Amino acid sequence: MTDGQTLRVEVTAIAEVTPLIKHFTLRAVDRAPLPAFSGGSHVVVVMRGANRVYRNPYSLLSPPSDRSAYQIAVRRMEASRGGSEFMHTQLHVGSHLEIAHPVNLFPLDKIARKHVLIAGGIGITPFLAQLEDLHEGAIPYELHYAVRSAEHAAFHERLRTREAGRVRFYHDSKAQAIDYDALLSAQPLGTHVYVCGPAGMISRVIDTARRWGWPDSHVHWEKFSAPPVGEAFEVFLARAKIGVNVLPDQSLLEAIEAAGVEVPYLCRGGVCGFCQTRVLELDGELLHHDHYLSDADKSRGKSIMPCVSRAKCQSLVLDL
Amino acid sequence: MSAVFKADETFRDDFSFRNSVAAIRRFPLPFPADEYMYSVNLEPHLPGPAGSITEFALDIDEHYVSECRERAIVLAAEPQRFQALPHMLSAQWDCLELIMESLARDYPQHFSLTRNGNHWHWTNRPLELEQSFTFGDVATLPQPPLEYITRQAQGDWVVMDQRDGDLWTEAGMVTTPADWSLDFDLGMTFKEWHGPVPLAHEMNVFDRALKYLLNLRLGRPVRRLNWTMTVNPRLDTAPEMYPFWGPDRTMVNANNAGDLVHLRVELQGLWRLPRSNGVVFSIRTYFISLRELATVPKWARRVHRVMQNLHPALVDYKGMSRYRDAVVAWLAPYDDGSPTTPGTAPE
Questions:
Q1: How far apart are CA B337 and CA B284, in angstroms?
Q2: Domains in chain A, start-ordered, CATH in brackets?
């Protein structure tokens, strides 16, 4: 999004689903129907804080057929840069927000013969919308949902009753763990596996699937990286001819936007590749945090994803 | 275009298709300069000036009723011109919604859509159709959703599923193709589908176009123009019908080219579909005979120059090898060598 065409929404309900997760219901300010979407989509929420603007991606978890409202769930991050903190403390029923149109970077495969969904913690959210589609269909599916303990299992009751027989819960507190080998070694041909959760869980699933000979095209994952906090650094934008200071708790993309320069973006989480920017000069080191560039591209140092990546450098010049 | 529909034009047999003066003035000339080569000429599908072909999301013009009748004639003989793989059903409904919403919003004098939850009522006054149906329930429509609505829409429609980092051609209504076959291409990836296009692969046009389209956003459609030439205003130049139209190419000479040869321009629109996450590709065809074209002096000069210098591989791919020289000869008297103004507007 670069042209400011956003949807204006109002917070119409807030629920605390676990001690760390709040669930928000959003309706169009003018009460017009919101765009339909597909399960697995996210929206970028624009939060106008006192001193700065945050834009964070959140998965839509409401039924895709329900155009009257969108629902998102936000986990309060311990090392919040301010976005999830803002959502948890500054919003109340009646607050207005801007959101971008839904984008789906984590869709279900339409010709899969079976779906295996693996969620860790807040990673359950994209699956909640997908389950609405799967529930009506004829394609078999199963959900494996790992959480710290029962009190952290967001949407536990809804899943337990609605998806009885197709959902299995794993509680860290009871030393229950997903047996990835057992799960991925005995699936029928044509099965697709989807994982959303902590980085360790995602790499376990990818590694285990590879080991058991799954084609990469049948393994799907979504991991939005929150832009990590780091050291301040300076960047020069060659075309705009301005220098920008990136604060420790600010992403490079946010700093560039705050300076009035627009960069096209979709996910703001290092996934989609949309904000890829050319590095013209570098004296120092790029700190890549994205999931888009290949390892070779990262070490080449000619491109950076400003939504999540930073630099530790004397000077950095970008083609912006 | 506040169209008065020409109800009895034909695109076969006696070829009675003609453009009104107003239709000529709004014709989408695809040549912004006096020479032509492929490019990734995608741009946002934003509303254009009043009366232009891009004023609205979908363009309905004076040929609407006749083109819908032509589509029905083709389908009666060749039902496989509409096809949809089973997993494309939600994308079919997405397309029906897109077309009905657009037409009812932009042409309220011709189309209406009322919705009460999933209970929809559609009115098409030019074709005298009324239909109540339940959105999402195929049993409540006389045909599959994409077939039903594209029988009432100008242009061809191709629906692509997005998976595995590619776009797969897996549904469509194609009765007005410029020498390509949905039946042959169904199930292909984006680059397989575009396999026959010369030069563009080497220019990485399709790598870049695919990357762009994989990130196509909801509510942000894009468009481009493409073009070829066709002898007679024949909409159905499918390869399956080649014996009926291929020989026409041998009839063209420098005397009759002005009436026989038509510049064929496709306004191609691409939309992200909301529920299916697919992409729909509309190919809206416009014809103009060289004689009609020559009523605009700038266009005659420009098309003469483009045709004279066209890359031989494109002349061949566009099927013009036999009659390109006749086209150039027919247009030559209209080109006095004076410069053309920038852009494609008539003058």
A1: 32
A2: 7-104 (2.40.30.10), 114-222 (3.40.50.80), 233-318 (3.10.20.30)
